[in-house]
Structure prediction request, 251 residues.
Amino acid sequence: MEIMLNVENLSVAYARKGLALDGVSLQLPAGRIVALLGANGAGKTTLIRAITGLLAVHGGGVTAGSVNFNGTEILGLPPHRLVRLGMAQVPEGRLVFKQLTVEENLQVGAAILPRAAVQERMEAVYQLFPRLLERRRQAAGWLSGGEQQMLALGRALVAGPRLLLVDELSLGLAPLIVESIYEQLKIVGDTLGTSMLVVEQNARLALEFASTAYVLERGRIVLSGSATEVGASDLVRQSYLGSQRADEVLA
Prediction:
């Protein structure tokens, strides 16, 4: 089985806050969707920062371990190199360019593509999210929260990444909008074979969406396995699912 992303014994510390990740190991097989669950402060966003080369911007640094992406050791590489290697991120809070139009935001995501391929990839995103086509001339700052999330996803997908990192997609959005966006992401995974690491507090949605899941608590992986196995565990049922049975959650 080809491993798209391999995190081994990764430890991360911040200058003022101390150790944030302690020996984290995680694997993401090619073409699969992996969920990373955890409460606020568990270290989920720190792990994403380590993978995407953004730790230093936030005052953090790797103290041990390795991160391998598609056969390349990537710790220490700048974010723009990772994009060219085939990695894309949908950041927490969406972070669209609000003064730019929808189409201009997508063009930013398409900047690494050959000019001849840009229009075709833009049309693919519009097909996935028809609402963006309707709003393509509108400033991103005037979009609803759900539309901005679609735009953030489209901007990440337009270059056709091999690995997509999604950080807290459901944050601040209505449940029906979140489920609709996850359905579109599922289509991306099924049709393009895009590998995805999805960071979520909404355990129910994440376990429905992913094939494998990891649970992060206080900087350590405390549970991993198939989505069904993780959903059936007492830890996840009591801490994240309100004691629902796994068959209810994953039905």
Notes: Residues 175-192 form the longest helix (18 residues). The chain has two domains: 3-86+162-249, 95-160.
